[in-house]
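Appendix B.2, paired examples.
Example (i):
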Amino acid sequence: MTVREWRLPAALILLGLIPMLAGTVRLTELSTGPEVTEANARFVADPLPVVLHIVGAVVYIILGAFQFVPRLRRHGWHRRVGRLLVPCGLTVAFSGVWMAFAYDLPAQDNDVLAGMRLVFGSIMAGSILLGLAAALRRDIPRHRRWMVRGYAIGLGAGTQAFTHAPYVLATGGQPDGNVRAALVVAGWLINLAVAEWYLRRPAGLG
């Protein structure tokens, strides 16, 4: 790939770096028999959904970034990796929904945020399934559009780190309640807005 072709996948991976590092720390913690605290009790008691979510997200973010490279889309690599990315993306979406249902809410979250996680997890899963259905019909433009939207939601945690940052810098504390819900939702909406802009630009996928 040329330097220009590297820019977008590199930027996407960098955006996902904070949640990927946080997820790696969480997996390391769970693998060492941690002391149970209020912050990790739900993960220690039921680690499967969070482990599936983290592992699926790391694969989905990294490999998914390279699906934006035109040269790779013209070769079999794109299709082979896509067969891995679909189950990984669905794992991320459904495990996110699972955690929203099964885990007790942490102190800083509320029912509004839990509901939004159900909504966006469902939208992500639906986007991936619609993209897969379009690919099976060989409707490649529609396939690409839905897959870009699903990836945008999957990368939401990276943008959410930046939507939280101004609040933390201004107040010195972490947001909670409706403020936190708004900042989390803002991350997903920003990514979807950027995805729609990307798809509509002359050089985009659509």
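Example (ii):
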Amino acid sequence: MDLIDELRRRGGITRTRTLLDAGVSAHALRRAKAAGAVIRPRNGWVALPDSDRLALAVVRRGLVLSCVSVAERRGLWVPERHQRHVVASPHSSRFTMPEHAVVHWAKPVVPRQPDAVEDDLRNALVLVARCQPLETALIIWESALNKRLIDRASMARLALPAAARAVLERARPYADSGLETIIVHRLGWLRLPMLPQAWLYGHRVDLLIAERLVIQLDGATHTGAQRTSDIEHDALLTLHGFHVLRFSFEQVMNRWEQVQALITEAVAQGLHLADR
């Protein structure tokens, strides 16, 4: 068995014991270390020299990437950049505290493999629910559901702590972006029916409030043909009696009070109702 191929297949970093159990010889390991083909980030671990720098730093300290750091690495919608988040075993007693990092001490809900460099996404989401404000946690969980990286029913069967179960109960898989989650979460006090990703006249809209009020949300790169198509659809909706309010990423994230004021004014005028 080729050591380098096996190590690369395992993400470039793993325990020496794992490679030996897989059939790599101790002689091959010694030769690779002597030649500089592999490095030893920690006693009992080997890695390729070009391995992910963050992963190497975590392994050197005997920790595992988790929480929002895993969410970012899995491509989930995370509202803002965070410090590195890592997890230590509840039984850990010796490790080097990383700079500019948040260390969680938590028992995983899904057993963590001894070779883990990056936590199981389900474990990471549990930490997100405990670590982050409710809105941020909801954005990340809904992003995971929308991308089908987790299954709602399977998550419900896990022994979730109260904070994670509370987020799961509120999370829905329909939000295509965190902006949609933010809008629904922040307008919940209106107690109105809200349908994300409603299908109207050949296209989906970001949010339909009650019967007639459509909220459209433009991402940071909303330009070109997509922008033209959306404007055309806005006009079609208007001709069919819908009222469309369109907001940018910058408005939602930085000027929420103005956004909320416009939506509540539309509701006050009854523009969300079909008989207007």
